[in-house]
Amino acid sequence: MLELAILGFLYDAPLHGYELRKRIAALTGHVRPVAESTLYPAIKRLEKAGLLARTTEPGAVAAPRHVLTLTEEGRTELLHRLAEPAQRDITDENRWFTVLAFLRHLPDPAAQAAVLRRRLAFLQEPASFFYDGDRPLAAEELDDPFRQGILTIARATSRAELTWLRATLDSLGG
Amino acid sequence: MLELAILGFLYDAPLHGYELRKRIAALTGHVRPVAESTLYPAIKRLEKAGLLARTTEPGAVAAPRHVLTLTEEGRTELLHRLAEPAQRDITDENRWFTVLAFLRHLPDPAAQAAVLRRRLAFLQEPASFFYDGDRPLAAEELDDPFRQGILTIARATSRAELTWLRATLDSLGG
DNA sequence: GGAAGATACATCGTCATCGAGGTATTGAAA
DNA sequence: TTTCAATACCTCGATGACGATGTATCTTCC
Q: What is the 3-state secondary structure (H, E, C) of chain B?
């Protein structure tokens, strides 16, 4: 997830670590903050893997900056991660939103649509958080108001997303 | 999160690990599967911390079962984790849903309401995923249809949850 | 003059999670 | 009859994330 965000931001323009940190904080920070001690090692990993290159520039204000640029392999890797996300990136909303945030980088609308269809398929599966045997329970069937809340919220999300998915799939050209 | 779910399920009744696994899979598995190699060490951790005790019973079908029971410290710990969740448990929907799933275990409606109010406060903060400087951007201000989607979905979720939160806070007795 | 906060990057130890693999039994399907 | 799926638990190595802490500079405010 973090790695996808790093690659995604760098696809547009080279950035230094600190700026990257601010962008990632803006994107997902209010939900899931990213510690510096997570970001810098992640950058090193990607650099070591040859996905990004580093050049040192004098700092605008303080310490020198390490400006990060995607390599050709980095661009390829980003496109691959966007075109074929792990199932987890499809089902987990946090991860899914990160995929969505950078999906525009995929050059082919058909490839974008394919990713959206995977999410569509996931949302169309009959699934709940609570079951009576194998049967998924609806909010109305629960006593617990908090568990009712979970289902109410999840259903609202699901509806909004299905509407958006279908409209977007349409406009991507069927 | 996983630990909260384990404690939460065991609060109702003693269970063996395999059954626990199935319940956790039902609760959050469609979004975030939990590997066995994560669950069993987590059980051991909690046992080592004195939060749960284990007794061996002959297996109904195959291998012997290790039936897990919450200790008194385990019950106290669960109630503490529910009454005072980390900020992360409030902001991250996955974690928040787990808190909600077991919030009924808190004996005091006022304590339940206090937790809901923390979520309410979080949702009322002006936050987006995308900014123009410091100003949060609305879906309509974005070109990217995928980023529009993120905001559209997040807004629908937020609205549904705010409605539910206010109604539930009311019914918990103001 | 000094403290605080932003800029800018880094390391360290710890811990949670994961995938791969292992052990053993029972019942059903091929 | 062999194989598969389910039951039931476990270990191991790798990795990724985290909090704490450190280093250094510059600006702003008191």
A: CHHHHHHHHHHHCCEEHHHHHHHHHHHHCCCCCCCHHHHHHHHHHHHHCCCEEEEEECCCCCCCEEEEEECHHHHHHHHHHHHCCCHHHHHCHHHHHHHHHHHHHCCCHHHHHHHHHHHHHHHHCCCCCCEECCEECCHHHCCCHHHHHHHHHHHHHHHHHHHHHHHHHHHCCC
